Amino acid sequence: MSYIFSNPNWKDNVRATIQRHCIQTKSYRGSEDLFRSVYGLGEGYWKLKNFDSSEYDNPIIDRQLKMIANLDISNTEKEMIIKSRIGQGIFRDRIIQNMSIV
Question: Against a cut of 0.85, is the pTM above it?
């Protein structure tokens, strides 16, 4: 994955890839519709459209959820952290797969 980070424009490339696969964006050109904006366009939070986190048993995520549960922060903050973590590994793998196809 070092090739991604050696490119100074890697964030722009990832953003463009996501937008090409989201029917909500102006950049969508009929590609497979994989993503949707979580909080509205321009906010930078995306989710996989057809992802059900209950399908995946992941001990790393389970351990992270336990660590988050023990943090001394509000339940709202815990919920935000948890939501941002669920599916992140699968999301990363799919982005890398799409980047290698392009």
Answer: no
Count of other CB atoms within 10 angstroms of residue 56: 12
pLDDT in tens, 57-79: 666 666 777 777 788 888 778 77
| Cross-strand bridge partners of residue 47 | 36
Of 28, 29, 11, 10, the residue nearest 19 (C-alpha): 28
- Alpha-carbon gap, residue 58 to 30, rounded angstroms: 33
**C-alpha–C-alpha distance, residues 61 and 67, integer Å:** 10
d(CA 4, CA 43): 23
Residue 69, number of CB atoms within 10 A of its CB: 10
Q: What is the DSSP string of 5-29?
A: HHSTTHHHHHHHHHHHT-TTSTT--
